[in-house]
Design brief:
By secondary structure, this protein is of the alpha/beta class. It is built from 33 helices and 14 strands. Helix 26 links the parallel strand 9 and strand 10. The longest helix has 22 residues.
Length: about 750
Amino acid sequence: MDLFEHVREPKIDKESPLAARMRPRTLDEFIGQEHIMGQGSLLRRAIQADQLSSLIFYGPPGTGKTTLARIIANTTHAHFLALNAVLSGVKDIREAIASAKEKRGLFGQKTILFIDEVHRFNKAQQDALLPHVENGVVILIGATTENPYFEVNKALVSRSRIFQLRSLTEADLRAIAWQALADKERGFGQLKVNLCAEALDHLVNVANGDARAVLNALELAIETTLPDASGLINLTIAVAEESIQRRAVLYDKDGDAHFDTISAFIKSLRGSDPDAALYWLAKMVYAGEDPRFIFRRMLIFAGEDIGLADPNALPVVTAAAQAFDYVGLPEGRYHLAEACLYLATAPKSNSVLAFFDALHTVEQEREAEVPSHLRDSSRDAKDFGHGAGYLYPHSYRNHWVAQQYLPASLQGRAFYQPTRQGYEAAIHQQVARQREEQLAAMLEPAAGLDWTGEKTGAGPPAQSRWLQRTLSNVGQQLGQIRDQVLALAQVERHDLVLDLNAGLGLLTWEATRRALAGGVWALAANERTAQALIQQAENLDKLERPVILNGAVTDLPLLIKKALPAPAAALHYDVIIGRNVFTQLKDKRTAAQTIHSLLKPNGRLVLAEIVPQHTQRLHQLVDLSGLPAEQAQRMMAAEETIYTNSQDAMVNWDVADLQQIFQAAGFSQIDVKTEVMTSNQYIGAEQIERWFALETSGRQQRATFAQLMLKGGINPPELAKLSALFEQQLLNQAVSWQSTMAYLIFNTR
């Protein structure tokens, strides 16, 4: 910059449009986009810590994409370069890269390269950026109004974190307007302006979520309105209507509006809503969408979503499409509407997808290592137990069950690590979810089964414990619980989520996949579990990693405060989830109050709690008819006393008690959904030995089943008979085990 430019710059800034002058300079001045910029959110933490990886900001015009880049420029210690894809070419990219290399070589300084309208770069220009983003010469920040998954080089997208900015709310636009009127340096704070409520309502409504549109209209209104005798500029509804008259219609046949509108149309058909389907059809026709494209989608819909529930659907749409070819527009709109209404009102079925299930079954056939339960049972099952305990995968949801296929020496070993490129990206999440279920099943504490009361994440040490889990459907149950919790919590992309009992990450990792632009915080019960989670998180990108805390639920406010950069406001979460948080917790009331203090007023809470009071009774697993009736009755009564101990925090509560505790803590409406679960449990010799052990050892915190039975009035000889009965009837058998899961739900939606 020469001396003359330096002199002219303040004048140029002063004469810039109001929207340019009022561009926020700091995070505190930034208004809106709370879903990605709220306190404690992933992006805000990254900006404050100056720990950015490559980013792409995607959203409608006037939502703050360029503004966020400028804020980063003002806060980062990195060298900041800016290009506009409309005005720049490969030469400008090369010059920027050369400057970045120089800064890194001479000063060890990182370079952030901001590219506005990045989707405007052609493939060659985007390819020119790729190696330098890949090797870290530059950190890319792109801004685009087009969906980057369609318009930006896939290799660049895969190396960047995508943040979607939403249209600003009416409250955001009002705050921006008042901010401009109050700012004496950059806005109109030096003038006397009376903006009536009706005028502001009109500006905000017609701006349609665009901050630039509000500021431009406000500037035009003020500069074209003469002040009265007292110097007051009155902005009436008439002035506002002249300043901003028409709302822009967003529809690009090659962009997001095209895909989003046809998606809304198909989903309205699938939801059997003829009114909504006609509306989206009319919007597409009005915007000039190709009717043949719409007919093609309706033909697909007739096969995929209706099928044999109404075999006439496909012929009707086919006939309407042929009629349109004969007639054309505008009369062909009758045939579009007729096909639309027929599909919307037809019964729905997707049973035709059974064909793809058949293909999936064929694809799953393969050879594997041969542990005992996988071996052929047709020849030597009786002598060697081959095939005992095998679970047929096609009998389970999604044709999968957590079952051990590796040799004993390789139990729990993971060889394959899918990348996020190409086809692998499609199976990455599936593999991760299944491994999480399998790992959780392997280390899941068996408080109801073993009477140990181990905390989630401690895990059993013996290989036979894993065999027991392998020959059960615990993994499938855990996957169902995980999916149920996340479905009830309605976790969205920009939510800030807290997992109250991370364990090995069953809920944490799934929440991390769903809240990609929000963030996940997870509480581990002990340092060992926390370190295991941190080690697993190393496999994720820095911005994806959850924040791992270590401690008790009641310590959360202090733990969160320590984890936030100072100074920071109190952190509140959109969603709080947990599994078996309260099962053994003694001070349940304080924990519920703590959880209430951490949840946003309109937040969601979902907890899955096993209810030990309603767990499987062991005496129901065996046939006691061979014992004297009086002795059998005393054995059953003795076991029931285990669940009536008012001093035992594990069994001295029921679902209604937990519901009352949460209501007393401030949750106005806690819904409870209970589910009786049945699993297959393999009973081996070691399991029976643990039940009937007369001494506790190792990490075991609770009394054994035998100790509790003796305490309940069963004498040692009777206990020995019961042990022999269990061994005779249950040894090396799979039994049906029942337990009760309670879902506590607070959701104001």
